[in-house]
TrEMBL record:
GO cellular component, one term: cytoplasm
Xref: Gene3D superfamilies: Urease accessory protein UreF
Name under which the protein is recorded: Urease accessory protein UreF
GO molecular function list: nickel cation binding
Protein keywords: Chaperone, Cytoplasm, Nickel insertion
Cell compartments where the protein resides: Cytoplasm
Subunit structure: UreD, UreF and UreG form a complex that acts as a GTP-hydrolysis-dependent molecular chaperone, activating the urease apoprotein by helping to assemble the nickel containing metallocenter of UreC. The UreE protein probably delivers the nickel.
Amino acid sequence: MPQPPSPRPVPSRTAALLLLGDGRLPAGGYAHSAGLEQAIARGWVRTAEDIAAYLRGRVHTTGLVSGAFAAAAQHRTALALEAGDLSGLQAQLEELDRELIARTPSPALRKIGQDLGRMLLRATRSIVPAQTAVLDAAGPVLQQPLAYGVVAAALGLDARDAAGVVLYEAAATPAVAAVKLLSIDPFATHRCLAELAPDLDEIADRAAAHADIDLHDLPSLAAPLTDIAAELHTTHDQRLFAS
């Protein structure tokens, strides 16, 4: 009698990081500009230098918050996996989700975060079906940073990895969108990312340090213009990106 196939192992750490950091991952991020489209429409961003400043400001504020919440979600998911008990995971993640939503004043950004989180979990279920149990235990709707944390734990990545991936996504998404929005040299935008690398490493370390602290003490930095841009974008007549 034929035996059922054994579950495939999770990707290696390097492969998992490449998978999650790939902008072609069908999790919806490529359809967003992270507020850059509206910033350009309002004249806040015009040049490569402006893009560099935009990216730096983003990762040092909401990027740190997102990275810390991703690390916290990874930590809680990893502990549940180590204990072999996923029954309480959803309740813990829902608490984190409420804390993150409380740090997101814009309703538009909250919806975008939920949509992208849902898409990431859906994509991971299809790509790595062996991890369906932990993804299902996390719950159907999570803000994107929390979804990254859960997926990171499911793929054997640690809290620092989860924070790093989220921070890279926070910078790369608008950097790639800038090429279409400003018809700017793609080498110039990727130079911005390369020059930002030391900041990304330092902020990822800081974010990972919050992985196991009380959820009420997680970072609460704000970027008011991002919230304003997100709300303005919902009523903008001509849009290339969803956000």
